[in-house]
Amino acid sequence: MATFPEYIAQNEERDGVRFSWNVWPSSRLEATRMVVPVAALFTPLRERSDLPPIQYEPVLCSRATCRAVLNPLCQVDYRAKLWACNFCYQRNQFPPSYAGISEVNQPAELLPHFSTIEYVVQRGPQMPLVFLYVVDTCMEDEDLQALKESLQMSLSLLPPTALVGLITFGRMVQVHELGCEGISKSYVFRGTKDLNAKQLQDMLGLTKPSAAQGRGPQTSQQPLSNRRWREMGWPCGICLG
């Protein structure tokens, strides 16, 4: 029988996911007392031969500010057909298509050995994949060169239509706008200054300007943030070219 560290290592190797903790907080109070927040490192596009893509919509938390996906860490009441979100602890009703679930008849997303699942979502616009590289440049020249080679290799493994973004940080944080041909353009932020999310969105042009600013209302049906992503990102195939 495998030890607990060996069990965790096997799960990480199988799923391509590593968490900052090997247990999940059981209550909101316990979550607030954690010194290190729960975080995870994912391996994008990792293939699993034992689990093909799921051909139905994921079940989402009903709380508008959460919308987390049903997963094996959620608490499930099979008799009442309810599940409690493990992110916000909201109690949710299962959709009618899950009427037949039980402890011996569970959907794939509740099975512990399927902690990562790829869904094929049929509705909504088909957006390209977005990969954001966040690179620490405070290193020796030899290490920096090795990092550049690793980044080039990882780009070759991405779909050609994927959008690629780049953020580098040292003494300054630079958000690079890769969509500018012929010139190098980036937004530079001082590393010692704290900025909230709203300030960053305004500086990067990710928020919709008001009519009072003299720009008029947005006429495009595409959200401004999506269009800015396309401007700031760059297709992977062009990056490699």
TrEMBL record:
SUPFAM superfamilies: beta-sandwich domain of Sec23/24, vWA-like, Zn-finger domain of Sec23/24. Gene3D superfamilies: von Willebrand factor, type A domain, Zn-finger domain of Sec23/24. The keyword Membrane applies. Its main location: membrane. Residues 58-98 form the Zinc finger Sec23/Sec24-type domain. It is a peripheral membrane protein. Pfam families: Sec23_trunk, zf-Sec23_Sec24. Component of the coat protein complex II (COPII) which promotes the formation of transport vesicles from the endoplasmic reticulum (ER). The coat has two main functions, the physical deformation of the endoplasmic reticulum membrane into vesicles and the selection of cargo molecules. Belongs to the SEC23/SEC24 family. SEC23 subfamily. This is Protein transport protein SEC23. It comes from Ilyodon furcidens. The lineage of its organism: Eukaryota, Metazoa, Chordata, Craniata, Vertebrata.
